[in-house]
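Lab meeting, item 3. Inverse folding demo.
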């Protein structure tokens, strides 16, 4: 059963990006590449940490997430995504880099995964802010589907420890929160225009 959950988690996670990529090509979604580049780097780090700790199931899910975020970066760069750096974006990127340096100093898979989740959250803040300010430039369904993929990622784990559990659980929470922000901000914007 765990293998089925892993397959579902991986397929859903990679598939979640399809509506997002479609909307980038249509011009209706403008990803904040500050977040997407951070996510791509961090999923690579988390995948490597999970592999080094022997958490191959978690690494498959995390690696699939990294592939999906890398696709958004590539397509976003081709389609001129939102890449304007505000002071807020710079603070988030500096915090992410500081977290990576701290992780390197401790050289532990547990620290690496926890640092990756923390840094990922900091990297997500520009997208959450963008989602709140311009919900029409985001694709909420991608985040909702990604949350479901994270849930199957949690169910696929063979054990629940500090290396395997944090990343998929975080994906459930942050993806669902982002989807909610987009929907609520979109409704607020629609109601204010009425």
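The presenter then showed the designed sequence:
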């Amino acid at each position: 059963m765990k293998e089925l959950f892993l397959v579902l988690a991986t397929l859903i996670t990679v598939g979640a990006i399809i509506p997002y990529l479609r909307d980038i090509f249509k011009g209706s979604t403008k990803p904040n590449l500050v977040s997407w580049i951070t996510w791509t780097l961090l999923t690579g780090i988390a995948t490597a940490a999970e592999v080094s700790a022997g958490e191959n199931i978690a690494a498959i899910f995390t690696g699939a997430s990294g592939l999906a975020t890398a696709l958004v970066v590539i397509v976003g760069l081709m389609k001129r995504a939102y890449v304007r750096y505000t002071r807020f974006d710079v603070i988030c990127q500096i915090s992410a880099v500081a977290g990576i340096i701290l992780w390197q100093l401790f050289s532990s898979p547990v620290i690496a995964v926890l640092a990756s989740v923390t840094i990922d959250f900091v990297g997500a803040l520009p997208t959450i802010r963008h989602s709140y300010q311009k919900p029409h430039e985001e694709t909420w369904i991608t985040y909702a589907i990604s949350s479901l993929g994270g849930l199957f990622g949690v169910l696929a784990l063979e054990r629940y420890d500090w290396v395997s559990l944090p990343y998929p659980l975080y994906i459930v929470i942050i993806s669902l929160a982002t989807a909610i922000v987009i929907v609520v901000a979109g409704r607020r914007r629609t109601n204010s225009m009425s």
